[in-house]
Amino acid sequence: MAILSLKNICFSYGITPVLENLSYDFEKGKMYCITGRSGAGKTTLLSLLSGLAAPTEGDILYNGDSIKKIDKYRLRSKYIGVIFQSFNLITKFTALENVTLSMDIAGIKGKDKKARALELLAEVGLDEDECNRRVLQLSGGQQQRVAIARALSCKPEIILADEPTGNLDTETQREIMEIFRSLAKKGKCVILVSHSPQVAEMCDETYALLRHSKKK
After folding, report:
1. Which of 61, 50, 47 is nearest to 8 (CA)?
2. b/e per residue, 152-178, with b = 16+ CB within 10 A?
3. What are the angstrom distances between the C-alpha of 65 and each of 5, 6, 211?
4. Model confidence pLDDT, tens digit, residues 48-96
5. Residue environment code for 68-82, b if the CB has 16+ CB neighbours within 10 A, otherwise e
6. What DSSP line would sit under 45-64, residue for residue?
């Protein structure tokens, strides 16, 4: 059974259609790549999947139930982890503080949050010294690792990432993709938006969006 499903999804900006009649199933244990030319609606679709926007028509199902029935804050703080293209980290905080703050906001209880955050950061390849550096003192690849650890902090079943390797060199891109591949092997549903053929080749399935023409 699919953990996330698109059911005849449509989305428009005014009279301009962006997405039309999309239906697709996403399963746990797989890594997906959403591709398409600029303007095809890739980031828009990611916003719909995360509940940051609502479709004009159609529905999105999480474990068979409409996400319309789920509080959107709860959806993103418990079930779906989102990794933004610009990372959206708090730059004056350390890597560790960014992850623990996310856990606080999500309402995660317990005295071992720091230990859990350090464990997550270690899993994505950051050592203790790097964990205690302010985000601005980290490279782009290291910041991406922090963003991944933060997304994992609420133990979501689904990971959404918008152009997660867009600003990274080839070697760092490969390392980040290996992290995502590992998450999929552990049973997560990983959905990436990317224009990179290399990223698409590393995914289990590719979902290509077609660009719509503007109505006159």
Report:
1. 61
2. bbbebbbbbbbbbbbebeeebbebbbe
3. 9, 11, 29
4. 999 999 999 999 999 999 999 999 888 988 899 999 888 899 999 999 9
5. eebeeeebbbbbbbb
6. HHHHHTTSS--SEEEEEETT
Q: What residues are paired with 207 via a beta bridge?
A: 34
- Six-digit token string for 199: 């990223």
Please state whether the predicted TM-score (pTM) of the whole model is above 0.85: yes
Q: Which residues contact 85 (CB under 8 A, 6 or more apart)?
A: 43, 162, 163, 164, 166
**Max intra-chain CA distance, the chain:** 59
CA dist., res. 10 & res. 45, Å (int): 10
Kindly state the tokens that stand for 15.
């009279």
Cα separation values, 11 from 19, 55, 102, 133, Å: 5, 5, 30, 41
Domains and CATH numbers, the chain: 30-37+72-208 (3.40.50.300)
Q: Which amino acid is at 47?
A: S
Cβ distance 158 to 81 under 8 Å? yes
